[in-house]
Amino acid sequence: MRLLTCSHWLLAAAACIALAGCGEKKTELGQGGSVVTGSAGPQGAQNAARELVRCDAPVATLALAENPNGYIMGSGYQLPSSPVPLVKLLAQQSGCFRVVDRAAGLKGTIQEQELKDAGILRKNNSTVAKGKGYEAQYTLTPSLTFSEQDAGRGLAGVIAMIPVLRDIAGLAGLVEQVKFKEAQTALLLSDNETTEQVAAATGSARTTDLGVGGLVFGKLGGAAGAGWSNTNEGKVIAAAFLDAHNQLVVQARALQAKELPPPVPTTTAAQRPKGG
């Protein structure tokens, strides 16, 4: 059998790159990959990511705060302006905290109270009353740094220096389409009673797009792609927050549980109306 020369090995490597360029995508979350999905509520975490680390019981009530320094995200990615709703879902799905709203939900409560005080709302059987809100025992602040590295140009430069690869039509242009998308996140947990930062965690994820398939996928969505699941950029950020949350839960499990408000009232199957 004839031995392969160095040029043959390089040619084989180039072929592998070309085949990978058909649209292979790989997302890494720590040692694995995931996208934040599902719901949380009285029925517990539904369709949550398998990688999500959970607690057997909540340890306290939690509010999420916007990062005062904002979030570093590249322009033109059609991403939401804040990752707080995403982290809220993770916190509730994990079962480690009871989440209280200090954003739109709180504004709605205040508005309803003002309407009641103004005599617009009914007085009898009103569910809006002062002094019934739950305090946030902890505050969680997310941080995000998203960066995109265009590694393809460097690979194309190497190929241009190797004659046997340089002469392959379109190979350099194909390699230029290799992109690495990376996200780094952090979650900071503070005790509202003592103001002490009791826990902090970081998370990271990287998505590798090889070839035109990945590039086209990253541009799809339009106005409907303004979420965390319709673009590669959004998916890698969601995965990084999932990674950070999992690291934080390890610390949260060691916190002594604080007194919690009564559980959320629910209906049993027998109490539900037919068809419900």
What keyword list fits this structure?
8 helices; single chain; six-stranded mixed β-sheet; alpha/beta; 276 residues
Give a written overview of the molecule.
The protein is of the alpha/beta class and 276 residues long. It is 32% helix and 20% strand. Strand 5 (179-191) and strand 6 (197-211) form a beta hairpin. Helix 2 (84-94) packs across helix 8 (232-252). It is globular and about 60 Å long.
What's the order of the H and E elements? HEEHEHEHHHEEHH
Strand fraction: 15-25%
Average pLDDT, all residues: 74
Count of helical segments?
8
As a percent range, the share of helical residues equals 25-40%
Termini separation (Å)? 72 Å
Q: Rg to the nearest angstrom? A: 25 Å
The number of distinct β-strands equals: 6
Structural class: alpha/beta
User: In which order are the strands of the major sheet placed?
Assistant: 1-6-5-4-2-3
Weakly predicted, low-confidence segments: 6-22, 30-34, 151-155, 210-226
Shape: globular
Biggest sheet overview: 6 strands, mixed
What's the quick description here?
With 276 residues, the protein is an alpha/beta fold.
List the helices and strands and how they pair.
Layout: H1 6-20, E1 22-29, E2 60-64, H2 84-94, E3 97-99, H3 104-117, E4 138-149, H4 152-160, H5 163-166, H6 171-175, E5 179-191, E6 197-211, H7 212-219, H8 232-252
Parallel strand pairs: 2-3, 2-4
Antiparallel strand pairs: 1-6, 4-5, 5-6
